[in-house]
Amino acid sequence: MNDRSAMFRRLAAGALGAALAPLASAQGATPASAASTGAAPAGLATTSAVERLVNLPPPASALPPARPTPNPTPFDVAAAELRWRSSLQAFAEQDRLARPPPGGVLFVGSSSIRLWDKLEAAFQQQPVVIKRGFGGSRLADCVAFVDRLVLPYQARQVVLYAGENDLDEGATPAEVLLRYERFVQQVLQAAPNTRIAFVSIKPSPAREALLPAIQTTNRLVKAYTEGHPQLDFIDVYGAMLDEAGRPRPDLFGADRLHLNATGYGIWRELIAARLKL
Q1: Which CATH number applies to 76-272?
Q2: Is pTM, for the whole model, over 0.85?
């Protein structure tokens, strides 16, 4: 095992232990036992083994989902290629017409990135801003396509919003953490100086039943990022709650899931404060 792989294993174990400690003590379990079973496998998967990279079996001591859900369907790379073909082709065409220069800020993830109108203008103080959101995508998809979505741009900072759809499809918080760990490994192995910012999973009225799982996932990822100087955790969750601790409907569109201009205004302020010039 190389030093980098060992480091990430320690970080993941520490994150799980810190975030699961309250639940473990309540259930009579120990944080250490949860962390040991939730840690990532040693080493990095190769590009030819994408299935192993994203097909993450639930750890034995992983948190139960916030609501009854089936086990996540094993990641189907062929199906994902078919599902996202048009999006990936559109990104490739954009690059062919105007290749972004290296050293920019790359926004990647699900529909919260894709639907962000005038995102580039919102961060115009940054010399280069690249938008690569594909609606409905999961963190598992971002891992599978990291060689096309992230690595070619040689960005100095990656801003990721993903994981919400993973939870909605039945993934546990521990699985989302492990998928994020693999995303980080893939990026930093290829570009060790890149900064990666994880935008916390948002609370939305349409997915209020998922809030316990979202909160746990955010705690896990935050604890993980605190152990690495190149990782940032941008907390948008708290700013989107009302005084009663429920998602603010005024921040969302008619579907009660996707942000409106007011919601994106909150995001812009919180994210801009964490971007490096």
Answers
A1: 3.40.50.1110
A2: no
